[in-house]
């Protein structure tokens, strides 16, 4: 992630395409998770990233503006707020995390930034696990999701999938080994 960098900010203010490219390259994926992990599409994430960049550049024009976080963390917070506002305005159900974000209004800025960074990291880890589960294959994905997400006992999984109880136990163990290997743990 980028750190607070006055040269980068000057380049953004002046409209330097390389500065925008640097911000996009280093910050987009993590900032986009604020939208993608809360029911948004890639197009929604791209639109809101552009809006968040616009807000950043507009704020940089104000000499009193001070950013106390990494650029990626700041953009993540702006994108998350824009996305939640869009969900509220459209009448869609807000994610449970929205209540936590609302609670941040009364928290000192430094603490709120730390909380947002932790939330962003947790969402990124969750997205990595989901991608890894998808890579294990259809059969493993089904066994893992039934066993760990739905908390379905092995005998019920065996019944649902038409396998024996012992096969499901061995399959679950092997699939979790495959998942750990993909995740590198």
What report would you give on this structure?
With 185 residues, the chain is mainly alpha-helical. The protein folds into two domains: 6-135, no CATH class; 136-185, Arc Repressor Mutant, subunit A (Orthogonal Bundle), CATH 1.10.10. 76% of the residues lie in helices and 0% in strands. The protein has nine helices and no strands. The chain has helices spanning 6-13, 17-36, 42-60, 71-90, 97-103, 109-135, 138-149, 154-161, 165-183. α2 packs across α6 and α8 (154-161) packs across α9 (165-183). The radius of gyration is 21 Å and the shape is elongated. The model has no long low-confidence stretch (mean pLDDT 80).
Task: Summarize the entry for a quick read.
This protein folds into 2 domains: 6-135, no CATH class; 136-185, Arc Repressor Mutant, subunit A (Orthogonal Bundle), CATH 1.10.10.
Oligomeric form: single chain
Average pLDDT metric: 80
Bulk shape: elongated
Count of domain modules = 2
Computed Rg: 21 Å
Name the helix and strand elements from N-terminus to C-terminus, one letter apiece: HHHHHHHHH
Q: How are the SSEs placed, and which strands pair?
A:
Elements: H1 6-13, H2 17-36, H3 42-60, H4 71-90, H5 97-103, H6 109-135, H7 138-149, H8 154-161, H9 165-183
Helix pairs in contact: 1-2, 2-3, 2-4, 2-6, 3-4, 4-6, 7-9, 8-9
Search tags:
mainly alpha, 185 residues, 9 helices, 2 domains, elongated, Arc Repressor Mutant, subunit A
